[in-house]
Amino acid sequence: MPAITVDDVLVLPRLPELAESTTYRPVRRVTTAPSGYEGEGFPVRRAFAGVPMTELDPFIHLDQMGEVDYAPGEPKGTPWHPHRGFETVTYMIDGIMDHQDSQGGGGTITDGDTQWMTAGRGLLHIEAPPEHLVMSGGLFHGLQLWVNLPRVAKMNPPRYQDIRGRESALLTTPDGGALIRVIAGEVAGHRGPGSTHTPITIAHVTLQPGAELNLPWRPDFNALVYVLAGRGTVGTDRRPIHIGQLAVHGAGDALRVTADARQDANTPALELYIMGGQPIREPVAHYGPFVMNTRAELIQAVEDYQAGRLGVVPAERVPHSGGEGDRP
């Protein structure tokens, strides 16, 4: 971890030095993700557990998948399942995952790639490791983030974005102590490739031991910092944070995160997944893979799924060879 890196961060664009008058966001809460299993039995950390929906808005759910080193025959995926009313953002740090839907779409994501699926009015979907990875085993590590859609977009046609890791905008801090990969949205004028219905920013940050990150952040966005690996502190009051923990921030203009000078022997740096977005501020009715505005809409989603109106499972799994997705 991670796949997308550079030999010399000092050649990258740099964040600006922030003014002394900058208002750093206070840390509202730090939560620890409970562990569980998803799909056919792969381990996950439920990163948003215990956080009020009002503080997550426009996000709904985040799973850290792995990090696990599978033996031959062990890699697992998910069975066919429906989605309606939101977007899934799957970020593959290590390993390979094929995805396919009931409308003929699909593709393969691997080290540093992101598969962005706007479910909209609904479809059936499956995610699974390719057969050669099942045979060989190997490292598997990724994230899946659920982004809510506003009422006006919940019944839009489904679409995909397959974002190669090399497309992410790369930048560093003034002293070169961090590598910042902008996956979606904008950080200090540097825009990531992901296109979103709801204005959001997603970044993967590697912070070297002892380094400090002062990250400008849109004041109208919420701000969530999840630790993928390592230890450090968040906020100007330096609250400790470690792998599997989420820091929820209050209002302000910037975030501050500092990596501990000493990391674990198998963790060379502090790895962060940083998210923020413009709150939708609409009622949320959530049941399994359906995220709507009312209970009646949830009932309709279940009925549509049971009646086959979200699609049917194809007779054969479509083989994928990697690269760009099959649909724009």
Automatic annotation (TrEMBL):
The keyword Nuclease does not apply. Keywords: Iron, Metal-binding. It comes from Micromonospora chersina. Belongs to the pirin family. Binds 1 Fe cation per subunit. PANTHER family: PIRIN (PTHR13903:SF8), PIRIN-RELATED (PTHR13903). Residues 203-310 form the Pirin C-terminal domain. SUPFAM superfamilies: RmlC-like cupins. CDD domains: cupin_pirin_C, cupin_pirin_N. Residues 43-147 form the Pirin N-terminal domain. Fe cation binds at residues 81, 83, 125, 127. Its cofactor is Fe cation. GO terms for molecular function: metal ion binding. Signal peptide: none annotated. InterPro entries: Pirin (IPR012093), Pirin_C_dom (IPR008778), Pirin_N_dom (IPR003829), RmlC-like_jellyroll (IPR014710), RmlC_Cupin_sf (IPR011051). This is Pirin. The keyword NADP does not apply. It holds the Pfam family Pirin.
